[in-house]
Amino acid sequence: MTTPVPDAGDEVTVRPAERADLLAVVRIENESFPQPWPYDAFERFLGEPAFLVAETDGVIAGYVVADVTQQIGRALGHVKDIAVHPDYRGDGIGSTLLSRSLGVLAAHGAGTVKLEVRRSNDGAKRLYREFDFDPLRRVPAYYANGEDAIVMIRKLG
Question: Which GO CC terms are listed, alphabetically (predicted)?
Fold first, then answer.
């Protein structure tokens, strides 16, 4: 199934994910990652304030999954997953989703946000650096295929 590329005038709406969005989210996940999350992983995050979808012209074009946990008495935001459908990449949807999720995490008390990114994913690392994420450490063999992850972190506020 192909989705038409949005016109420059198409409106992008970012909103909390709903159960009806999950199949579209899983399709994007499967097209975006070599080891995609299964449906039930997304289902567990329904209701999290920072599980957001980007919709354009009635089509789910991308999503972000993030949450806030308490660590050593501090609220830590964690961007767990973010992806944009291949037909919509390069339109700023990933930036919009990341920006909105950081706002939601800050509103829920997170003073710091972390994420993990594949060492080979230069496009994602570039996006995160644009949002002032700094590399913190490398985690060897983090991914199932043995690839290392880079943990990146950003202070909020």
Answer: NatA complex
End-to-end CA distance of the chain: 42
Looking at per-residue pLDDT, the higher value among 9 and 86 belongs to 86
| pLDDT above 80: residue 121 | yes
Q: Please name the fold of domain 13-155.
A: Aminopeptidase (3.40.630)
CA–CA gap between residue 41 and residue 39 (Å, rounded) = 5
* CA atoms of 154 and 82, how far apart (whole Å): 16
Annotated catalytic residue 11 = no
How is the chain split into domains, by residue range? 13-155
63 catalytically annotated: no
Contact 124, 117 (CB under 8 A): yes
The single residue of 55, 63, 88, 128 carrying the catalytic annotation is 128
Active-site position among 48, 116, 143, 147? 116
pTM of the model: 0.90
Query: How are beta strands 112-118 and 74-84 bridged, if at all?
Result: parallel
